[in-house]
User: Fold this.
Amino acid sequence: MRAITIEAKSVGSARRLYNALIEFHPELAGSEDDGHRVSVELGSSESRLVDVLNAIEQYVTEAKTSPARIDFDGRRYTLHAVT
Assistant:
């Protein structure tokens, strides 16, 4: 199953991101030692991927946070706020 995973700097930022992605049924994982991550299962739907990316971009832009660090299909990406 394909998933997109977003790294969070703290448990607080992970929870805020989790709440921003709640409609996609995210999972919250990690620890203080290993870092915190929020993951969303994508299935095979390309439109779901686009919807999740749009929601992450909206969160980063509205929260004025640092860029989102994303893992997807074995690759790492950085998603910046829209200016």
Summary: The chain has two helices and five strands.
